[in-house]
Amino acid sequence: xxxxxxxxxxxxxxxxxxxxxxxxxxxxxxxxxxxxxxxxxxxxxxxxxxxxxxxxxxxxxxxxxxxxxxxxxxxxxxxxxxxxxxxxxxxxxxxxxxxxxxxxxxxxxxxxxxxxxxxxxxxxxxxxxxxxxxxxxxxxxxxxxxxxxxxxxxxxxxxxxxxxxxxxxxxxxxxxxxxxxxxxxxxxxxxxxxxxxxxxxxxxxxxxxxxxxxxxxxxxxxxxxxxxxxxxxxxxxxxxxxxxxxxxxxxxxxxxxxxxxxxxxxxxxxxxxxxxxxxxxxxxxxxxxxxxxxxxxxxxxxx
Amino acid sequence: xxxxxxxxxxxxxxxxxxxxxxxxxxxxxxxxxxxxxxxxxxxxxxxxxxxxxxxxxxxxxxxxxxxxxxxxxxxxxxxxxxxxxxxxxxxxxxxxxxxxxxxxxxxxxxxxxxxxxxxxxxxxxxxxxxxxxxxxxxxxxxxxxxxxxxxxxxxxxxxxxxxxxxxxxxxxxxxxxxxxxxxxxxxxxxxxxxxxxxxxxxxxxxxxxxxxxxxxxxxxxxxxxxxxxxxxxxxxxxxxxxxxx
Lengths: 303, 245
Known about the structure:
The structure holds two protein chains of two kinds.
Chain A: H1 2-21, H2 23-58, E1 63-67, H3 73-85, E2 89-95, H4 97-110, E3 129-134, H5 140-148, E4 153-158, H6 159-202, H7 204-213, H8 217-256, H9 260-264, H10 270-300
Antiparallel strand pairs in A: 1-3, 1-4, 2-3
Helix pairs in contact in A: 1-8, 2-6, 2-8, 2-10, 6-8, 6-10, 8-10
Chain B: E1 8-18, E2 24-34, E3 38-43, H1 49-56, E4 64-69, E5 72-73, H2 82-86, E6 89-92, H3 104-113, H4 119-132, H5 148-160, E7 166-170, H6 178-193, E8 197-201, H7 205-211, E9 214-219, E10 222-228, H8 232-244
Parallel strand pairs in B: 3-8, 3-9, 6-7, 7-8
Antiparallel strand pairs in B: 1-2, 1-4, 4-5, 9-10
Helix pairs in contact in B: 3-4, 3-5, 5-6
């Protein structure tokens, strides 16, 4: 037991010495892994959020007809009648000012902005809207144009175009994530492999002596495996912090931006993703580090 | 020394080694070395000395034949157990192979450290072996500040620190002046007297003749001659005897 502990102590000590010996290569390796994970992490988060937006869109009505806030309940009744009389309509559901206010406050809470002071009791600044489903999706364009001509209608939103756009975006981001996973993963492994290879060369004499004295495989290889793991973990943690900062900044930017952007782009709170992201970064870093050190060991440390 | 009565430590049983490039380094090599024996390995460059040592260290595998060390067939040693096997063998090289950034003490201690020895064990054993090698006063010096002879003594100390059963010295005096070479040979003899089987690969004919030990002379990868060389004194005595008769 004591011997094993001394072994672990030795491996740790040697791996620190290895890292200090080639600190410039260490920095380069950590930086490349950091940059790779940042890119992959950003793309991954974009993909997750695009899916989130799509899921949200799926739960929304096919078409939303919104009235001006100035439209009275009587005027809204007239608009509803006009919609219902249209033969292209399959269903129409009226959403009151109070319901729209509740939807707004729920959404604010979801994006972590509940602390913003909205007059949650006063629904007068919200509007009446209609969730509409058409019998034939091909009529959507014409119906949209016709509805905009109705007095009191402020906007007609169809989520079909939005969904198509976000789906394309999500697919593009996913492809980008996979491509970057392969390209940047390969680059990271290559650079880390070179770093570890340099350390192996620097310790060639020691390794030679170790081999002849009969040092165990773990004593010979352990420091290099540890070196890879340390580089991997350092890159992972730094990338996590950087991506976290960027994401928080983006959330804050979205919260303060007004209009359709804020309405359309609903990002998941970072807390919901943090654990998973950190786990994936650590796993990615360790796998990259281990692959690089194993390759270098297999190639340059012959027992 | 009657070899036949003693336990065999090393046995090359009709060993052949042909490298992938077709070079036949060892041809039908067959000899035994008894436990506790002191043997010189001689031969011209390319005669197969280095290959023999590599085979013994299990760095290379024979193409044909078997090698036994301390009763074990080397072919049966699993890859994972090679390092454990090597702990039974100490090696000294012509170029010393010391770690420049470590002191004499640390160089010797390194061989124990990497086998997981405790600090106390290391302190005790290293001090003892450095004393034996006459290096106690130099324990805090770095290799660059030592003479060739002293460096080789450090290498020797490192080779025997884990009390191996066999000590292989590959041209241990090749880089030394006669005085230092003599000292190293005396140390090797002392190590042998303590029961370690010693195999010395050398070109130093005069030294071999001076010590009167068994010599295996390799010629193109096979045993050219194998026997005990008479010391210069013995040769002179036998010459006088012949003259008198």
